[in-house]
Amino acid sequence: MTASHTKLNPVDLEFPTNLWRPKQVLITPAADAEDWGQQIIERVKSFDIRVKKLTQNKITGLRGNTERETYAIAKNTLAIVNAPPSQFKLTPIPPSADWQFHLAQGCPAHCQYCYLAGSLSGVPVVKAYGNLPQILANTSNYEQQDRDTTYEVSCYSDPLGIEHLTGSLAECIRYFGTRKQAYLRWVSKFDFVDQLIGLPHNGHTRCRISVNANPISRYMEGGTATVAQRLQALRKLALDGYPVGIVIAPIMAIADWQRYYSNLFELMAQTLDIECDLTFELITHRFTPKSKEVLQTWYPNSKLDLAIENRRQKRNKFGGIKYVYQKDTMSELKESIATQIKLNFPDAKILYWT
Asked: Per residue in 268-316, pLDDT tens?
């Protein structure tokens, strides 16, 4: 696999005007020495964005005078770096997939409930990895011989949100299209999928979009495509033969949530009125003490409910605390969402509820 396989010709695609365009793009010497790093540079320059070559393999100078300034600077920066050695030791990611690996870290969106808040160290800069061929080759070390193996690639980033600048998601799809028992999974809140249509995926990539009720998607998911746009994108992918999926996350017990989620399912049913291999993943809202602190710094005017009075504590296997809905609220949400799925998509499979 070489960068020449996906050399960008900007005239091949009509790029939407609302794609993320970072104010600055940095590249480390290590990533600059990689063929894939050069491929990313080529794509970035096709958008008339200048690339600054750093003199050391460390990203600095992104902190402002306040946390809000730091957030703004970092969120407008794309750093092309190499994935560190620690990322070549893959970790399980149940219930989403057998393993997770990363082609990037950080996200250009501004979701006020961001899952990355508190889980990633440092400033929220978007990092794209220049050593992608090595990352992909490493996944074969984790493939099971007696059964299919699944890999999640969107735990630390929204890969579609930066795909126009990196091309890395398309390369992942091509790579897994050649594997016999390995399957790729990714999820996004963006909609520019034209760049993925016609790829030789061979059914080995499940494309999912994340959606939510209107008050949440409209007011808490800044910088993303609308839910209607995301569903249209999913329709395109399904018609191109991809297995597809819908992730409803984070499910929130907002005021009048029954009506808003019912409206969401009505829109989904209208858009996905086609035969397709469809799955659902259902994730309720939760937060940790650390993520609450970070989110309140990033989004001080958010109306996101982070009060712990109406939540219950759960501990993970490492002893960490997270706050989830009370059991009766959980049960009501689960029953209502499951009923809507059965009513509107009787052939779809619910992979998990959490």
From this structure: 999 999 999 999 999 999 999 999 999 999 999 999 999 999 899 998 7
User: Which ranges of the chain would DSSP assign to H, the alpha helix?
Assistant: 29-32, 35-45, 67-75, 132-139, 163-166, 168-176, 214-220, 227-239, 257-271, 289-298, 327-344
Q: The domain spanning residue 9 has which CATH number? A: 3.80.30.30
- The mean pLDDT of the chain is 94
List the strands of the sheet with 97-100, edge to edge.
Answer: 91-93, 97-100, 149-152, 182-188, 205-211, 244-251, 278-284, 349-353
Q: Provide the residue range defining the domain that includes 36.
A: 3-353
Q: What is the pTM of this model?
A: 0.93
324 vs 67: CA distance, rounded Å: 27
Question: Which amino acid would we find at residue 257?
Answer: W
Tell me the C-alpha distance between 160 and 195, whole Å.
10
